[in-house]
Structure formats: structure tokens, C-alpha cells
Give the backbone structure.
Amino acid sequence: MSGHRRQPSRELLELMGVVRENGNDQKSPPPVGTPLSYDYILVAKTREPHDRATVKKQNEFIEELKKKNFKIKKIIDEDLVFFGMQAPNEIFEKYRYLLKVSDACNWSSDQNHVPLSTRIRVVHFILNHTPIDSGEGLRELMRMNVFEAKFCLHEKKKQQELTKSWARWTACFQGQPITDIRNYFGEKVALYYLWLGWYTYMLIAPAVTGSIVFLYGLAFFNTSPLIEEVCQANTVMCPLCDGCKVWMLSDTCTYAKVTLLFDNNGTVLFAMIMAVWATLFLEFWKRYRTTYVCEWKVSDWCEEEEQLILEIVNNANCEPKKYKHSYLRSTLVLICVTLMILVIIGLTSALVVFRVIAAVLLAEGSWEFLSTHSNSAAMMLGAVLHYLIITVMTRVNKYVAMKLSQIEKTRSFSATERSFTVKMFTFQFFTYFSSLFYVAFFLGRINGRPGGYVRIAEKWRLEECHPSGCLTDLFTQMAIIMVLKQTVSNIFEFTGPWFGKWLKRKRTPKLRRKCAYCYLKDDSRHGEICENCKLRDWLSNYRLNDVDSFSLFKEFLEMVIQFSFTTIFVAAFPLAPLLALINNIVEIRLDAIKMVTLERRLVPKKTNDIGVWINLLEAIGVLAVIANGLVIGVSSDFIPRLAYRFLYGPCSNGTKTEKDCMVGYINNTLSIAKMDNQWMVTPTGLNVSSCSYKDYRDNVNYNHTSQFWHILALRFAFVILFEHIVVICKFIAAWFVPAATMAVKNDRLFDKLKRLKEELRSFESGR
């Protein structure tokens, strides 16, 4: 190592973080991330002498960067070669000037330097848009293993500050330093955590309300005439599957109590509240977001203009990439998306067949407990298998969505990212919810009746709803998938990066060179830290887990899928908001710890919104209104109970009676099937030739009764009325909540006026 060594000044030591605030020297290594550090790092393997082609491409790329006046620092350690990149200041001066004269991309007038996050973003763009003579860029060179890794460095001092104030488990119930996150990771990451924090905060009200609905059902355990009627019934029920035995209605006493916890009168009001809540959440989010984007001076930021500025900074003679559209490509993509959705629906059908066969096999098995509860066991096994299918299909969906996005040949990477996001979410949504839609709206409604069951391949009869009602099956599916997804995902999400970091540390040798405080004089105005100190820091960053442009996408996708669970079928699972709230409190700190300490630094990206995710959230909000209306109107027993209370029960037509108005409801919902020349043995040993099943049919011809058609008409009338009322409430809520606070609007108004005045003074001074 060459160069004249001298002791650094106190100002430099403070900048490097070596001196404590109280003036005492600190014996920790100097941090990076100050103007002394490099903007970007490339890593390659040391090559054998015969691997000249790879070394040649490596040198060609470095030479192309040197032509742009990049300062390159090459350090070799064992079998790794590190290239430290420092872009010349004139690049950032051009960037600042173009932002200043731009119509939509404002640069803060009081900011007289370029922050490191901006430097990283600009350098990242230049590296990815610098081809060698053969036309290959950095992405192609990475795929060819010319370079093994690329990353920007963590800033030790700011990293420690974020760890102390945010990325630690003891900060679970503290606020997030959003502005500090933005300064370190950029606006895109900051807006994700801002949105996640707001979503978590807004979940408090529905979590409390859902718990109250749950406790409301719990309060009627001992007083509900429906529970009493089920628990004391001597009714013999028809077998639920081929090979199953007859069973007693009283056997479902416990399940009936559980069902009442989420299928009660409070569920209807809760579903309406959640549908309106989804709108209020989005409207208040837009309002909350504007406060920060106005403070960050990105309110009028334009992605297209930012892209053009970066292209000009990289190459002053560049030509813009034109917009193109091909109906042939769009048609091909649409056909492929449709086929992929059909494949996912086909997997759902296979899942149905699995449950049907599993129920028969369990019923014919030797285990008495499983034989007695074969349908419930088959449903739970189906839910676990569904989760495994989700795990496998997530990888398949990602691959297909990426390939389809590449077929479209979009103009920019951000456009490709938006296209990929929509396709990936669509595939994931069908993967998660196609089975739930079947359980909610088709299970038990297309299976026929005793003596005339619908069968698969004329052999296996279709499954029926749980003995206590169809909503129990939906509740079971949602509970298993949601709990498994959140628990397993959080475990792997944390242990995976931690194990990856540990494995890399084991594989890469420790730096044996001594790292002392030193200062090398060179041509730059700041100088630089000694080579050994740089190498140690570069190695520590290299050992962290790799990140890419879609790392943040995974976090967003997970949360938006959770938002779908929380809103779409909340009528069947009122505790979903509570589970989501608990998960999100952990998720924020889990993601923060992972991003700050276990992963390489994400390239800071500029934006002023969460992008296409807001459109997907609005679509989910509309679907939530439709789905909850159908769940209450079609899947639950709310409408049949209402009809019995006012039209068919003891209190029908305003009749006053000492009995409870719901007495006799259970028997009213049952029909009787007579088995000619067939005798069935009950669990108590009695022989019976008839059994009951849940439906509104006469006992002779098995035709639907008039009560069935009355209830069916009431169901659809309720769905239409529910959806119209909720949609009107959503529109009123959206109109009532302004998209931005008056303070934000006034600040933007004064900022624009100030800028126009400055331009006028500049014009007049130049005359």
C-alpha cells in the first residue's frame, strides 16, 4: 500500500464516527457510508489463467466505466476481487440541474449536496446501462458469471441508528422513523413501511370489533334455543359420505356452539363495517401519504421524466426508447394468463376429488375417531394440502408471470415490474382463494340428495357441508391457511436470511490483514480510508444476503394477500383482523431487522406512491363487498333464520307467544329420506329405515318445497340490498374524506409560488 500516511483531523474523525460526542476516542472501526465510501461495489472470482475470455469482459466493463470518469478501486483478497466504484461529481451536478429545470421532478432548493441514497440510485442506473463492445450489459455479465455480486454499501453509523430506533424487537410498539428510512433506503421502501404501519394501525378497530362479534356469539352458548335444540335432539341424520355411518344430530353439539361464534346476527353488521372500512382505509391512506410526499418534495415526481434525466446523465446523446404496443403479443399474453388461471382452477378441482376420496378412505379405516369424523378430517387434510399447493405454485406463478412480462417487451423496467405485479397477484389470488370460493358458494349445494347423489366418475359422491353448516368448512379452511401461512412464512422469512448470512460467513475466509485507523492522501478532497479497512467492510457487506428489485415486491404481495383474507371472507372469520394485527406488529420489525442487518442494502428508489398496488387494493375492496354479501346471503343461515322468525316460526305473522321465536328452527330445516328395504344401525344400536338431511324437500317426491323458493328469493334480495347499501356507503366515505389535508395543499401551493418567483427573479436578473 502506497501513499503518505498522516493522522486525520478531529473533524474527519467525527465524520468517520471514531470520536464520541463527549470528545473521547472510540476504539471501534470507522464506519462507511460517509463521503469517504464508494457508491457501488462489484465482486468477481479470481480467474484461472485459461479463463481469459471472462477476464477480458471484466476489464472491458471496467474500462467503459473509466471512460465516464469513474474512480475504480480494485482490491484482491483470497479468491475474490472487489471493485469499488466512485462516480465523478459532474454526473450528480448534471442530475441536480436537470431536476431543477424539470417540470415534474423537483429538487429541494435548500439541499446543497447529493445524498448517498441518490448517488447510489444514479450509479446503479449507469452501471446497468453501460454495455461493452459486444453489447452485453451488467445484467448479462452477471448471468455469465463475469461478476459474481453487485451491491451498495451499508452506512455503519446510520445502520446503527436505524437498528437502535427501529430494527429491534423491543421497538415493536414504537413508531417508525419514516423520514430516516426514506433517507437511507429511498422513497419506495419508506412508503412500503408507511403503508404497512398505517394498515396495522387501522386494523385495531376491526380487530376489536371482530373480537366483540366473537364474544357476542360466546354469550349465547347457554341461552340460544338453536344450541339447545341441537344438543338435545334424537334425530338420526343420513350418512355424509359413501361408507360413512348414520349419525345423531346431537353429536354436533360442540360444532354448533363454535359455529354460533361467527355465524350470528352481529356478523352481518361486522361484514358491512369491514366493507366500508376497506374504503376508509384506502382514502385515509391517500391522505396520510400526501403528508410525507409533500415533505419529501416528490408530490409532482414523474417516473417517465426521472427516467429520461437518468438516461441523459448516462449518455448525453441518448435516444429515448419509444412506446410500442402489439395486439398480437397482448392477445398471446391474455391467452396464456387465461390458461394459467384454468390450470389453477383445475388444481382446486383435484383438491375437491382428494377430499372426497380421503373422506371415504377415512370412513372405512380402522381408527374409530377418524372414521366417525371422516368429513372433518378430510377437510383439514385438504386445507393442509392446499397450503402445500400454494407453496409450490408460488414458484411456478413467479416464473410464468416473469416470462409473460418479458413477452410484452415493455419500455422500462418499472413498466415490466408493474406488469409482473398484476400477473403475479392474479395467479396468487386464484391459488389462494379458488378453493375458498368453492367451499363458500358450491360445497353442499351441488351434491344432490339421498338416493340421488351427484358422483365423480359415477363412483365417488360429492362431499357435503360440515354437519353444523357450510360456514364451518369455510372457517376451518381460512383458519388453517391463514395461521399456517403467517406462522411458517415468518419463521422462514427470518431464519432463511439469518442462516444464509451464517453460511456465507463460514464459506468466506476472515480478513487477516490488520485494520488500523489511517488516512491516505490522494487527489480527492476527502481522501479515503485505508485499503484494509475498506476490504473488511466490503467483505462484511458481501457476506450479507443478496437482494434484488423484487425483494420489496415479495413483502407487498404477502401483505396484500393478507388484506384479501382480512376483507373478502371476514363474514366467515371475524377473528381474521385480529390475527392480521398480531402478525403485522411482528412483521414490521421482522422486515426491518432483515433489511437493516441481514441483507445487503436495497438500491434506493424514488417514487411518490405504492404504485399499482393501490389499484389492486381498490379491486379487493369491491370484491369484498360482493363476497361478504354472498357469504351472508347464500352461505350462512342468517336468511333462513330470519325467514323462520317472521314467516314460519311461532312468532310468524306477528303472533305473540311465550316460546322463543326460534324454537323448532332446526327441525324445520331438515327433510326425511326413506330407504326402501334398507336398514341402518345408529350409534346406539337401533335399526332405522329413514334418516334426516338438511334441505327443504317434501318426503314423497323429494321436490323442493315452497319454503325453499321463498328463502332463495330472500337470499338474492338480501345480496342485492346489502351490496347497494355498502357501495353507497363506500362512495359517501370516499367523497367525505379529502385526498389531502388542507395544510398539505397549502404547502404545495406556496412551494409552487416560491419556485415561480425564483424563476422570475432569475429571468429578470439575466435581462
About this structure: The chain has a mean pLDDT of 81.
